[in-house]
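Question:
Write out your own:
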Amino acid sequence: MAGERPASGRWVVLALLAFGIGAVAGVSRFRQEIVVPAERAVAEARRAAGEQDLLSPLVTETRPSEPVLPPGSWQLGCPGDVRAVLRWRGGWAMGTSAGLVLGGQAGQPPKLIGALAGLAASRVTALAEFGGALWLATEGGGLAAFDGSRLSSYRFGEPGLERVTALAVAGGELFAGTFGGGVVRYDGTRFRRLRPAPGAIDVSRVSALSPLRTGLAVGTSDRGVLIIEGGRQISYGAPLDRVTALGTAGDDLLVGTPFALQRLEASGRASTDLPDVHVTAITNAGGGDVLVGTFEGDVLRGPAGPRPAYHPWRKLPGAVSALASGEQGELAAGSAAGGFALSGREPRGLPRPGGLRRPHVSALALDATGGLWIGYFEGGVERIEPGSTAPVAVAGLQSCPGVNHMKWDERSGRMLVSTLHGWFAHDGRAVVRRLRSSDGLAGENVSASLPVDGGMLFCTEKGVSVEKDGRIESIGVFHGLPNNHVYCAVEHQGRVVLGTLGGLAVLEQLRVTRSISASANGLPANWVTALSPLGPGLLVATYGGGCALWGPDGAFTRHPQRPGRFEVNSGALIEVGGRVAAGTLDRGVLLFPTSPEGGPVAGLLQGLGHPDVTALASDGSHLFIGTETGLTAVPVGALP
């Protein structure tokens, strides 16, 4: 994910000024203080180690990928969120949040290979061709290789290696950069981890890789660039600490950062090619030109030689996430709005299969007719008709802000939509009402809403508001709430129970009659994210403490007894098929009985595409699961 600009421009100006001065006198100091010591440390380390191999063995699990969800399951992702592009077998391959999209190969229609087809994680972050196969880097699922008909997974046994961020082929070998585990090298037979020499920078958090004529360049998210050539490892630090892209221009290395495009010449000289630009992608365009993609959606073009003059060349809808070129001079780009061919005067959309409008599903709800409403973290709402898998934008909510929660109100026949910027009521045809803080709500960020006693209750980041008879009244910490940030609300035994960042609160007649915290009352954690009546008790889900059953006697019982503490996402708690389903931060869906002593806990993780489950809903026949990368439907009768 592209980084934000620094909060203050002062640091940027000073850094660029210092770097520019380095072209005269500072470059010499830069080399003396950074490059020379690194070279000396490498030489000394190699002598001390007797020229030993700097690579260590790596434990891996290799297996063919295959569908892991039961028959009757289906899945929708966002193939328009393109993270990587590569020319492959006459068409374009795209790495997306939904998986691998193949478009235009041998005149075939676009094809999606995602989690339902066995990909360990849906979000594909980088692509490379190696050994006759198309290699995929995934966020959370390690590596995968597709040979045109068969998909194979490569999972690493060491922590920090499953989130692969970059791929490069150099010297006849495949290199994979990870976020947390450094660089992994594959020679076609085995994987080994790169061990930087003593004195070199830490490359555990890799953000970019680029092959060089005689080596490899490694860019990191926080420590700069490491160049590996033969027996040398040369480090370049500030102002190159935060590397967003790497590329080459002849023998020079181009380094993209959030504030400039820098050039590292083979001689060691450093210069600035483009100041004050957030670079997100770099590629060679052929004919001696270089393309540079930016966070603002611009594709710039310029000659590869020194002191190039870049000019605006193409404009994409959204930040440029990837740039690629083919052997015949074909050019393509990726963004959150899709993949685009750049050969014409205007970008042309690359073919892709249908799917969701956005990748991150943050809310799910069913209306009276069985239609499934899908709310997105990035904003907007879509709906799927019963018996269909084709989402359609909901009129009036196409561009509503980030959706926190949705609930069908049978009393009014409306869908209640809580968002980052207010609350909406939709009757299935149009928005019939909207409320914001300017209308009297305690806060703008509405986490959830609940119909209560002829009125409506709103959970916000600044307390609770209740509308009744045309009036809105609000309460907060001053009135007894344990915390102003209220995430959820439910009616239970004639009272309203609120879940907040600081514990539970019982509300009667707009008065807090009881406040319950973790420290003194047995609640497993103060951050309460979801509530669900369960028999005579109330199931309380927390972020960090798992779930507990609040019994009529006022005591809390850990529920389930195992796996102990875990994080339940906001609102992701429902009863389905005689069991409880909880959407977790990193364990997928946990399924456990309604009774604490009712049996073992089951999990549903493989095949979801992402372990972060942020929304759940069920129509009785299917469990609908929303994650950071899309929507999965699993038959209730086939749940583990």
Confidence is low (pLDDT under 50) at residues 1-53. Residues 131 and 188 are 7 Å apart (CA to CA). Helices lie at 9-49, 518-521.
